[in-house]
Amino acid sequence: MPSCQSMVRIGLFFDGTNNNRDRDEPLKGHTNIVKLFKAHKDVDERKFLGDLDSFRFYIPGVGTRFPENQEWSETQDGKAMGKGGQARILYGILCVYDAVYRAFNEGSPLYDKKQITAKLKSYTRDVEHNYDKEYPEQVRRQQWFTQLRDELNDRLQTARDLIRQPHIPLIRVAVFGFSRGAIQARSFCYWLDAALGGKNTLAGMPIEINFLGLFDSVASVGLAHSAAKTTPLFFADGHFSWAAETLKPLPSLVKQTVHYIAAHEQRMNFPITRVKGQNVVEVPYPGVHSDVGGGYCPGTQGRGMRMDQMICQVPLLHMHKAARLAGVPLVTYRQMPPDLQADYALSPELATNWNAYMAAGDFTGTYEDQRREHMRLYYRFRYRWIGRMAQLPACQRATRQEQQDMISYDWLFKGDMQLLTERANGGRPWQRDDGNQIIALHAVGNEHLANQLQLLRADLRATPDDWEMMVLHEFEHQKGRLRPEEIALLEEQVHDSLAGFYLAGYQTAQEKAEQLREWQSAPPSPNERYRYQAWQNFQRAKAANPALQDVLDSKAAAAKQVQSARVTGRMDQVDFYQRRIVFTDEEANLLTQDAHGQPIFPLLKDSDARELRSSLITTQTMTLREGGGYLVPRHAFSP
Predict the structure, then answer these.
(1) What pLDDT sits at residue 138?
(2) How far is it, in rounded angstroms, from Cα 171 to Cα 215?
(3) Could you check whether the bond before residue 166 is cis, i.e. omega within 30 degrees of 0?
(4) Does the pLDDT value for residue 134 go beyond 70?
(5) 541 touches 600 (CB < 8 A)
(6) Where are the alpha helices (DSSP H) in 285-441?
(7) What pLDDT is attached to residue 439?
(8) Which residues contact 451 (CB under 8 A, 6 or more apart)?
(9) First-to-final CA distance of the chain
(10) Within its chain, how far is the Cα of 443 from the centroid?
């Protein structure tokens, strides 16, 4: 390309729910999105990663800190409902305009940080929180984008009039996303198309999304699909608000899409949203949600003890290759600095386990055919270890909490299989009380024996469906028929997302630290067994280390400063002190363990469910985890 011409190449990387590079990378729990972001060339990088025509932008997952939108702390509504997705998508739009502006304006940004925040807040005020019935949200959004497009195009054109070179023959945008970040990446494509007015030009310059790379697209925005399965809310599909358009085909602006889907994911709250558009490739990969997109720390559940042994490395390398072939400016392995090479490493053991597993099944045919084949092999693995999970080497390497999770959920699966076998044979006879009323044998009071959905189906004597009959066939006829090398991937690399997915309780260090702060003014009573034990543990820990109380006192002082600033109308001070209320990762980690490294919060058990769960989740489960279990196939939405 002549020196007076410059093709601008932009990479956008939307991370998954509760995934955040700043928090996760020190623990080596960062996702494939972060690794790809680090491999993308950028104007501000040096050596092989440096490129004057390339720009990269990382967008943290919903539910985590996002300073650009003044989201200073983790939020439950972001993690549970996807709140904050709109701001991240709009931020991606602004990044595209900013990159083009910087390309011919000697690196000067289009907006400073305060102006970006103002734009994001303006959208929230004018579109999301504008409840004018005469103009539905999509119409308001189109009007808002029309004004934004005119403003940005004017600023770009003014700059172009002053600086004519370089000539930009094409703007290429590559977009990557995982989990809800994959849904955001897809929504970004529709939003950019709307911002361009469907003309595929930005201020007169041709633009295209040459590559869309997705890891396991999960929406669950607003009311998730699990609500439709467990309540009368039949309309709940998790595609509300900013996720609604992803049920339509992609716009023509997108030239190529690659979507890797977790074949072993089964959680009701994680239905997959498949993709339709031009040049789309979807491939089921062995593993659960974060086995495909990344996000587990090495050694989680005693599996993938090093980064190079983690199963997420395989889809990472495949996505990297597909993106490079599409022209995305990702560096090669040899060009990577040592820390990035470590992120991309793949051990001979993982390669051997992967190849043996893939050779054990017939992974051809339709998406459904391939998914079913992956699950057939998975049920053979479950057969081998049902009732014996404590003896699985990975379980023996796991933490105490992970062992509790894996063993207890395997116990529920054992009960599920017993009930399924009985249903296949006609079910247990119903009993009647003295008033000749039918008594439910299982669902009430027996949540420690089996998952709620299977208990209810047993009470109804429901005929096993096609999927359940497939599971029975694997258990009764195949009986775990796989060679040791063929099952090694499932034993050593594939995680159990059902066992470790809590709908109640305290999970992250931030959640625990914030709860301790609340207990400062309203400590739990002895009747709250779990919470009271955690509070007593903290009292002993701070007696040995007074610095723990100092951390909480500093947050209380900042909260008072916020109240004072609001009363006096000093809004700049409100923002300043709100940031000081938030626990840093170091502070949160300090507060959640004692001087000996023992956790302040006790081991979570399903017996704690009555105290910790919200009444809202009792339609799904009477325990702390999902009540569907391993016998429920993952739901798929198709455009």
Answers:
(1) 59
(2) 24
(3) yes
(4) no
(5) yes
(6) 289-293, 313-325, 338-344, 348-360, 367-385, 393-397, 400-424
(7) 41
(8) 412, 413, 415, 416, 621, 623, 626, 627, 628, 629, 631
(9) 39
(10) 31
CA–CA separation, 281 and 263 (whole Å): 15
What does each C-alpha distance from 249 to 86, 141, 190, 214, 509 come to in angstroms? Answer: 20, 19, 10, 15, 40
Confidence of residue 96 (pLDDT cuts 50, 70, 90): very high
Q: Each residue of 431-465: b (16+ CB within 10 Å) or e?
A: eeeeeeeeeebbbeeebebbbbbbbbbbbeeeebe
Which pairs count as long-range contacts for 281-285, CB under 8 Å and 24+ apart, including other chains? 281/257, 281/322, 282/367, 283/258, 283/259, 284/363, 284/367, 284/370, 284/371, 284/374, 285/260, 285/261, 285/314, 285/315
Sign of the CA dihedral with 410 first, then 411, 415, and 418 last: positive
pLDDT one-digit tens code per residue, 584-626: 989 999 999 998 989 999 999 999 988 998 877 777 888 899 9
Mean pLDDT throughout 399-409? 96
* Confidence bin at 190 (pLDDT 50/70/90): very high
Residue positions counted in the chain = 639
Q: What single-letter DSSP state applies at residue 125?
A: I
CA–CA dist 144, 185 (Å, integer)? 20
How far, in whole angstroms, is CA 268 from its chain's centroid? 14
Summarize the confidence of residues 116-128 as an average pLDDT: 85
Task: Give the pLDDT mean for 280-288.
Answer: 98
Q: Could you give the CA distance from residue 513 to residue 490 in angstroms, rounded to a whole number?
A: 35
**What would the pLDDT profile of 342-374 be if each residue is shown by its tens digit?**
999 999 999 999 999 999 999 999 999 999 999
- DSSP for 564-605? HHHHHT-HHHHHHHHHHHSPPHHHHHHHTB-TTS-BSSPPP-
Nearest Cα to Cα of residue 620 among 18, 242, 80:
80
Locate 501 and state its tokens: 């997915």
- The answer to whether residue 432 scores a pLDDT higher than 70 is no
pLDDT at 444 over 90: no
The 8-class DSSP code of residue 20 comes to -
Beta bridge partners of 262: 285
Q: Are 209 and 252 spatial neighbours (Cβ–Cβ below 8 Å)?
A: no
Residue partners of 51: CB distance under 8 A and separation at least 6:
9, 41, 42, 43, 45, 329
Query: How far apart are the C-alpha atoms of 420 and 386, rounded to whole Å?
Result: 15
Predicted pLDDT of residue 390: 98
Determine the pLDDT at residue 133.
Answer: 56
Distance CA 192, CA 252 (A): 11
